[in-house]
Automatic annotation (TrEMBL):
It comes from the Bacteria. It is found in: Cytoplasm. It catalyses: phosphoenolpyruvate + UDP-N-acetyl-alpha-D-glucosamine = UDP-N-acetyl-3-O-(1-carboxyvinyl)-alpha-D-glucosamine + phosphate. Keywords: Cell cycle, Cell division, Cell shape, Cell wall biogenesis/degradation, Cytoplasm, Peptidoglycan synthesis, Pyruvate, Transferase. UDP-N-acetyl-alpha-D-glucosamine binds at residues 93, 122-126, 313, 335. InterPro entries: Enolpyruvate_Tfrase_dom (IPR001986), Enolpyruvate_Tfrase_sf (IPR036968), MurA_subfamily (IPR050068), RNA3'P_cycl/enolpyr_Trfase_a/b (IPR013792), UDP_GlcNAc_COvinyl_MurA (IPR005750). One of its GO terms (biological process) is peptidoglycan biosynthetic process. Phosphoenolpyruvate binds at residues 22-23. CDD domains: UdpNAET. This is UDP-N-acetylglucosamine 1-carboxyvinyltransferase. Its EC number is 2.5.1.7. Belongs to the EPSP synthase family. MurA subfamily.
Length: 431
């Protein structure tokens, strides 16, 4: 079983390049299902989730190739077996993103219901309800959502859809479905994340007519056909945020190439309030954290909310940072009901945190000490890496399949900044 072995205490210095965003790449790859022409996607990160999505698309009859230069070539000329089986969906919930494009392109989809996962129950009722409003008939049978069009109906039809809550992949699924539907669709209460904007920009490059992406109301005029395109995946704001928290905690000065400050507003504000130096450049972010060494970082309270609020995908990493900053902070998780599983593992490293329901109270100023810990979900694993980088002695982080879902070679990138971190299948000295 592989582990990351980290010897804490090194400052991070230098330059790192942020990869393409997982949460943008996954819907963009699915958008290739909307056309029978070739699609070329640049800056596609090398992640397990991307491999799983390519395997899923291949299973459906899409020709796929992810080349060494991080460009993915996709061609959904003829769709063979448009099914997303549970084996693939279970390992990656974003498989649900095949539902909208398949319904739009061929009027049939069979996608396994994702079920619950480590961070919460995560239903997909809004995806299904939206497609029903566009004329789809759906049943859930043997654990699969089977969606069809009524006899004699060729295409989904545009609709006005107000989701009960803001849902990121729900908005993406309905946006892709609406792009090929007949007539106009209004998505009200739409998610505004940068990944939605990236998807809309790719769809527009394919010939879709979309307005209002990046706001809570997206207007789509369906077209009969979409064509192929070439598009580049936006930089990963969560990977960038993870590096920012790591540098803030360890101290040092790092330039994050390609990171976009405007996508990280809420996180950058908290870092600045904490006492960290942040400079947003045209094509990157520079961070310096001299206060880390002298114990001058001030812990920050925050609530996770939809974009542009503080992202739930940054909650665990910022919690690790708050553990070593000074003062008491309160962290409220409002998006997922079970996203504090890293608390127990951070406690093993010496953190003082009390979690009760949606709220965790962190007593800062902890002197962390290395230990064996296990990842419980993707961002939890990143929080343990950050804690390991500041902990005294050796930290061994296990269950790396969570980390590998969403970080493109994080250990090489951290090593390039001076961290003492390596991957080993033999384990370290941690008990
Ligand atoms: C691949 C991808 O982009 N994943 C991101 C996406 O997940 P994902 O799109 O799955 O998250 P949603 O935005 O849909 O979830 C927001 C909330 O709405 C609830 N909900 C959602 C849909 C639905 O039909 N019914 C329902 O009840 C969820 O359980 C959750 O409590 O947005 C999350 C919130 O920013 C991020 O943490 C994930 O990293
Ligand atoms: C929760 C996440 O991803 P997913 O929706 O793929 O589980 C994440 O990226 O932090």
């Amino acid at each position: 079983m592989e582990q990351l072995i980290i010897r804490g205490g090194q400052r991070l210095n230098g330059e790192v390049t942020i990869s393409g965003a997982k949460n943008a790449a996954l819907p963009l790859l699915c958008a290739a299902l909307l056309t029978d022409e070739p699609v070329t996607l640049h800056n596609v990160p090398r992640l397990h989730d991307v491999q799983t999505m390519l395997a899923l698309l291949h299973h459906m009859g899409v020709a796929t190739r992810h080349d060494a230069g991080n460009t993915a070539h996709l061609h959904a000329g003829r769709l063979g077996e448009p099914e997303a089986p549970y084996a693939l969906v279970r390992s990656m919930r974003a498989s649900i993103l095949a539902l909208g494009p398949l319904m739009a392109r061929i009027g049939y989809a069979k996608v396994a219901l994702p079920g619950g996962c480590a961070i919460g129950s995560r239903p997909v009722d809004q995806h299904i309800r939206g497609l029903q409003a566009m004329g789809a008939e759906t049943v859930v049978e043997h654990g699969n959502i089977i969606a069809t069009l009524p006899r004699g109906v060729q295409r989904l039809r545009g609709a006005r859809i107000t989701t009960d809550m803001v849902t990121v992949t729900g908005t993406e699924n309905l946006l892709m479905a609406a792009a090929l539907a007949e007539g106009e669709t209004i998505l009200a209460n739409a998610a505004q994340e940068p990944e939605i904007v990236d998807l809309a920009e790719m769809l527009i490059a394919m010939g879709a007519q979309i307005e209002g992406h990046g706001t809570g109301r997206i207007r789509i005029q369906g077209v009969a056909r979409l064509h192929g395109c070439e598009h580049s995946v936006v930089a990963d704001r969560i990977e960038a945020g993870t590096f920012l928290c790591a540098v803030a905690a360890t101290g040092g000065e790092v330039l994050l190439h390609k990171a976009r400050g405007k996508h990280l507003g809420a996180v950058l504000e908290k870092l600045r309030d904490m006492g960290v130096g942040i400079e947003c450049l045209d094509d990157g972010i520079r961070i310096s954290s001299p206060g880390a060494a002298s114990g001058q970082l001030q812990a920050q309270s925050f609530r996770t909310t939809e974009y542009p609020g503080f992202p739930t995908d940054m909650q665990a990493q910022f919690m690790a940072l708050n553990c070593v900053a000074q003062g008491t902070s309160t962290i409220t998780e409002t998006i997922f009901e079970n996203r504090f599983m890293h608390v127990g593992e951070l406690q093993r490293l010496g953190a003082h945190i009390q979690a009760d329901g949606k709220v965790a109270v962190v007593e800062g100023g902890s002197r962390l000490s290395g230990a064996a810990v296990n990842s419980t979900d993707l961002r939890a694993s990143a929080s343990l890496v950050i804690a390991g980088l500041v902990a005294e002695g050796e930290t061994c982080v296990g269950e790396l399949h969570h980390l590998d879902r969403g970080y493109d070679d994080i250990e090489s990138k951290l090593r390039g900044l001076g961290a003492d971190i390596r991957r080993s299948s033999h384990g370290g000295h941690c008990a």
